[in-house]
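Researcher: Here's the sequence for the chain we discussed earlier.
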Amino acid sequence: MEMGETPKSLLDALGAKIQLLMARCDALKKEKCRLEQRVEECEQTISVLKAQQETLQIKYQRLKMAKALSGDDEDVKASKARFNKLVREIDKCISLLNE
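Model: Thanks. This is the structure I predict for it:
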């Protein structure tokens, strides 16, 4: 205890510091809630973007296949080979399912 400080003044100073800490704690709690909400919004956005990416990937594959089927002789040969490979893979899957 310094000179001139009474127990009451020390108690008042301690009370003021506690009030300050409580106010800061409340502010941090609000900030935490805000950040948690922002994280949730970002996760929802990521989910939507992933779904869009998957849809676009499928469309791209379809366009690629369509272009290959409508291309020149070399493209047609490559497309037919890819198509035949896909058919063979599907046949393998069907035979595995029938076992």
